[in-house]
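[step 3/7] fold_predict: job queued, chain A
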Amino acid sequence: MRTVADASPEGRRVLVRVDFNVPLAKGNVEDDTRIRAALPTIELLLERGARAIALCSHLGRPKGRDASLSLAPVAARLGELLGLEVPLLADSVGVEIPDGVSLLENVRFHAEEERNDAAFAKRLAEPFDLYVNDAFGAAHRAHASTEGVAHLLPAYAGLLLEKEVRVLSSLLADPERPFLAIVGGAKVSSKIDVLQALVAKADAVAIGGGMANTFLSATGHEVGRSLREADKEDEAREILRFAKEREIDLILPSDVVCAPAIDAASGTVHSADRVPADLRIVDVGPRTLEEYARAIAKARTIFWNGPVGVFESPPFAAGTRRVAELLAVAKATTVVGGGESVQAVEEAGLAKRMTHVSTGGGAALELIEGKTLPGVAAIPAAGGTNA
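[step 4/7] structure written:
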């Protein structure tokens, strides 16, 4: 892709698609990680003399205009980070674009955005000379602001988008070995494709979280009242067979923490083949974490996506926090692939000790799966004439 570093923005109006889909609490930004991630691109455009930089983002899934999903708190936080006033414009289309940095109102206030409506994309592009896509977290969506506009204006990848694609693509293209993947989360069904891709490329794959219960059940283990997907057990067995065929280590929990419910105050450790019928698995156990530690110590490239326990419940977040701590001291390239695993390293204050922390959960997984991301495919190849 050609990047914003190849552009000539001096004196021009630039539309920048960013991913400011951030959590809000009591009218304030609760986590500004994604806002901070966009700063290098914004600052580069400012340094190079762009006349106007209008930032475009969605927030949540509004049904029409929804005041609770206004980007006003985001504009305020962005202004604090940049040290200048960032006005929130009244809409994403049909508004006058001021000089300097501004933020368009939530682009999903218009249903045409998610339909990638050509007329809406034209209205969005109309006031601008250049387009920069820096919204990796939305790059797997073919929407008007991520894909449609890129065909109407000279289009470039932002610095964040370029880095995300480069780092994540390198995991499958040429990782330093041994390459370990740690995959957690609740359901196998959402990660079948990514598991198949990682088993095909990695030297070891560790599976945790609720999805591990389906694998345990598929191998004949009783999992009590644990979350599992019985209809995905055949696919789990196929992944296990593929791992055996490739002669790679596929690490399932050997011991687990169990509790009566996910909101219980505490749990008890049990062997993975002796889960009580009246309990449910809520975290990996200490022996499993030791197995993870040995695999992490041997690895030279590590990709982690998804918690290995019920991370949203503090008593059962220990396993996920321990994985974050192990990655922080690993002598390896460490890539954290979005979602709650990112939340875990952020909350532990360990994000800066990772090689790369992705801003896009779904986009990161689709890239790992080998899928083409519409927002990436729409950016022309590098080497063309600057526009």
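[step 5/7] annotate
The chain has two domains: 4-161, 175-368.
DSSP finds 13 helices and 16 strands in the chain.
exit 0
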